[in-house]
Design goal:
Layout: H1 3-19, E1 23-29, E2 35-41, H2 45-57, E3 61-66, E4 79-87, H3 89-98, E5 101-107, E6 111-122, H4 124-138, E7 151-152, E8 157-158, E9 164-165, E10 167-170, H5 179-186, E11 192-193, E12 196-197, E13 200-201, H6 208-217, H7 234-252, H8 257-270, H9 275-285, H10 290-308
Antiparallel strand pairs: 1-2, 1-3, 3-7, 4-6, 5-6, 5-10, 8-9, 11-12, 12-13
Length: 311
Amino acid sequence: MTEIAKIQAGVLRTIQKEVGVKAWHFGSRSSTGLWRQKGVQVELVDAGLAWARKANARGSDTYFRPAQSEPAAGSCVAYRYFFLDDLPEALARDIASMNRALIVRTSIEGGCQAWIFTSELLTADQRQRVQKDFALKLGADVGATSGIQFGRLPGTKNHKRAGQWANVLVTPRGQRFSVAHILEDTFKPIRWSGEKVHGTALSNFPSARQRRQRSEDIADVSTGDQLGSNNASFGDLEELEFAALATEFMIGAGGDRSRADFQACIRLLSAGANSEQLVDAVAGSAGRKGRQARKYAERTVRKALEIMLPK
């Protein structure tokens, strides 16, 4: 058995142990879009992996997932995991540091996939609802939230990304938690009252006159040269923090600036950022000017707030 085959078998054994897999599904998609699928019992996993590696060597992208029904009875299976796709590497590592998870980096540009193991069983329908909720709040791929979603097979080439290798970044460690606990831990509570967050109504950001007055009030505060300098105002720090975070998210967003800004807004609001100051920060780093930048910033922050506020 080759080294890659050993690594792949080890990854599947890890997931098998975590969620109780009895059978596997493997899939391949050619450059022309042709989809093929193969199911194997866990005892024949090496044969399934060999099939996937052969398809990958011929130019197809290859995927895997736990079988979603009992091979004999045909009944649906509940598993203790949910899956997220297209996470920036730093965010994926952050999630893994707080939860029991397996992280696979699919490419430098394409971000990471996370298999997050839970304390309770989830049916495919339950998993889909959980995954969509997390994807919306984290800015992950909402199109990859099916409860029977395939993940990219580690140790294979990602032909969509010029043949970059998909690799395991983080193996499971630590304790399992319930979905409710993971949700609460990932998104730290933000202060809100009715339709207001930090006293800012969703449709009522400060006017130009109010912003000018606030600028005059802090006009004597000088900006430090480094993040964390004693001379930097809170607003300045937030703009620098937002710019750094948005740049980091740009990798996972495939260069999509609007998506990266949206993800950064959600992350900072989750950590307790003030929504008014965040609008200022987005406008200051948006690469736009004047009123156009302000409208873009308000729209981006408002969208993030709408996702995060309880319905």
